[in-house]
Specification:
The protein is of the alpha+beta class. The chain is 38% helix and 32% strand. It has one domain.
Length: 198
């Protein structure tokens, strides 16, 4: 028996088969970012605890960093739902005429395009496919990460960049994200499926 396919997202069709709905979830910040952020709390908490001669600061800063990592991960793990009909792409409570959509693309966190498909008259006519997304473009989290060592800052940046891919459409001159904060494999699978149905 053939193994079932793990797409990394959900796909459903309306009863009449005219509307295809995609549902996916962002990937959070990843273990590297969690460890890096908590390490910064431990490092600075320990320094402050030594200066103040009280380890309360250590526990407060660790708790604060865990809270920050949790909030960041939660905000980057939100659910995204969008639909494709014969004439429209529906996302974020808005409708975009497929005839006005000129391309479908994957963008990484630096804004670089890693894969794209040209759309004419609401139909995909040409695609470059996905060219392999480097971990480029993670936003810098501040000078404090650099002060405690490049390895910690790099772990945070790479972890977030790995999960910084977005599936977008170009509607006129505007790039509209359909789903964000995805790992490369999830973004590629979603890109491939969406280009099949547009």
């Amino acid at each position: 028996m053939a193994e079932s396919v793990d797409l990394g997202f959900e796909v459903s069709k309306s009863d009449d088969g005219r509307e295809i709905t995609f549902q996916t979830r962002g990937s959070g910040i990843g273990a590297g970012a969690w460890v890096g952020i908590v390490f910064m709390g431990v490092f600075f908490g320990f320094l402050i605890a030594l200066i103040m001669e009280s380890f309360v600061a250590l526990f407060v800063l660790i708790a604060l960093c865990v809270g920050i990592a949790f909030l960041m991960s939660t905000s980057r793990s939100q659910e995204y739902t969008f639909s494709v009909t014969p004439d429209l792409i529906k996302a974020g409570g808005k409708e975009y005429a497929k005839s006005d959509v000129s391309e479908i693309l994957i963008r990484n966190s630096s804004g670089n395009t890693a894969g794209q498909a040209q759309v004419e008259g609401g139909t995909v006519v040409f695609g470059t496919g996905v060219t392999g997304m480097a971990y480029a473009g993670a936003t810098t989290l501040g000078n404090s990460a650099k002060k405690i060592g490049d390895s910690t800052g790099k772990a945070i940046q790479e972890s977030m960049a790995k999960r910084g891919n977005a599936l977008c459409i170009r509607h006129g001159r505007k790039v509209v994200p359909l789903a964000k904060n995805m790992q490369e494999d999830d973004a590629v699978a979603l890109f491939n499926k969406v280009t099949e149905v547009v």
